[in-house]
Amino acid sequence: MSPVPATKRCVGPEFFVMSEKSPITLDMTVHSRRDSISKRVTVVMISGQRIVVHVTPSSATAGEVLERSLQALDIKESSLFTLSTMNGLEEYLPLSTDTKLSKVAPSGWKDSTSFNDARCQSSSDSFALYLRFKFFPEDIDTSFKDPNNKHQFYLQCRRDFVQSQFRLSVNQALVLLQWLFK
User: Fold this and answer.
1) pTM of the full predicted structure?
2) What is the dihedral of CA 139, 142, 148, 149, to 10 degrees?
3) Could you read off the pLDDT of 154-170 as tens digits, one per residue?
């Protein structure tokens, strides 16, 4: 196999490049009921990768979707992560694991027809949740058992910094930049 030319390599921040990839699809619907309705939830991972999860809207919880999404990408230490919604001010609002998705979904999401219905392709049929770290670790070097999680934390900090999510003094920003670009 010949090497990939420089023009075809991954160029740019990982969270931008990964957002262009085709999403992974997971099915969490309960197929035992004939009249069951299935809805889509798009989970935006820290890396930018998207996972489209088909759920039963009346019973699906944030914790169930979180666990399946982390399993799909083989991300360990699930207790470090949470799913969040985003409000109108572009702030992330973390969800409890027992929060039913129907409580945070757009109005009409739970009750409209199945995603298989050709008439049903509006924005109310799907909504986005964002994978985030629950807490900032005390010590970055010792807090993560899996090195991939340290990388995920780095990606979240870098993305938040680029998108001006942090309210930092100049000194704090310089310290963060120093760590991010090591």
Assistant:
1) 0.77
2) -50
3) 888 888 877 777 777 88
